[in-house]
Amino acid sequence: MKARQRTQARVLIALGAVVAVASVIAFVPWNGSDNKPTPQPSPTVGKLLDANGTALATLLTNARKHTFHARYAVQGDPAVIGGTLGLEWWNTPDHSRLDTTRTQGGKVVKTASIVNDDQGASCQKDGSSAWTCKQIDVPAAGDPGGIVANLTGQLSGRAVTQHADTVQGHHALCFNVAGGTEPIDVCTNSDGVLLRNASAKTKFEISSLDTKVPDSIFKAPAAVLR
């Protein structure tokens, strides 16, 4: 039972991480401050999903079983995404790390969300200051930045259609999510690895994808405080 709960927790975090940037990069602003996540209620993954929405959720879940290292190029209004933004993700079946680098007004803020089995850490580095890390629950309300709640907010109760596409040379299965505040288009490869997530205002797209994932990347960059 505990092993099953840990697996479900890792799936929830992974699902949230890969679609959190649907219409804005929801897990980055964090209530206007990178170190003040806004608590969100933990939703039920799969609630009110149609057949294609379920297919997308299944693909994204399957990505959690694979080893990959992905970098994404983020495009959008700097006022919406908070300056310029870089996104990088490392994953193995038992570990996951998602980093952001945001530059705004000459200030660089880096974040790292790390999951090792049932242990989670949220880390941040402001400019030249040292990294700081704190322990987080896996999954937790609002961790990281409400991405789990954002997943359900983007998919639940909305019509989803499929279409084939190519994203930066990768064959892709794409899903157009209609309705809501604005339509979004989410694409994955056959393993479920996210290739593109786009709305009319914001888009992030794969810029490189490989399987180079050193074990050391899952070590937090600073002592993890409780």
Question: Could you tell me the radius of gyration in angstroms?
Answer: 16 Å
The proportion of residues in beta strands is 35-45%
| Helix percent band | 10-25%
Strand neighbour order, sheet with most strands: 7-8-9-10-11-1-2-3-4-5-6-12
Shape: globular
Query: How many strands?
Result: 12
Order of helices and strands: HHEHEEEEEHEEEEEE
Q: Which structural category do the helix and sheet elements fall into?
A: alpha+beta
Average the pLDDT over all residues and give the rounded result: 76
Please summarize the sheet with the most strands.
12 strands, mixed
The CA-CA distance between the termini, in Å, is 26 Å
Tally of contiguous helical segments: 4
List segments where confidence is low: pLDDT < 50 over at least 5 consecutive residues.
1-46, 140-149
Sum this structure up briefly.
Helix content is 19%, strand content 39%. The longest helix is centred in the first third of the chain and has 18 residues.
